[in-house]
Amino acid sequence: MVVKKQDLSLVSYILGIxxxxxxxxxxxxxxxxxxxxxxxxxxxxxxxxxYALARKLNKIGLILGIIIFVISAVAAYLLSIGVLT
Length: 85
Known about the structure:
Blueprint: H1 5-25, H2 30-42, H3 51-81
Helix pairs in contact: 1-2, 1-3, 2-3
């Protein structure tokens, strides 16, 4: 089975959407970080029409995942020392 470059760009586009959703619903945003990185790594064909949009979606999912992870880590720390009780 031969994988075309356009297929990889479409997969990257779908992973971008999944990364945004997973950043919001997964624990600590880890899903968004993982899917965002995978989507950025497999998208290599700059001539493909999905390239720019897939890259934007993956970056958004990655950034959301990182932000949610940091907020969750800070909240967990503050709860552990008793500030937010």
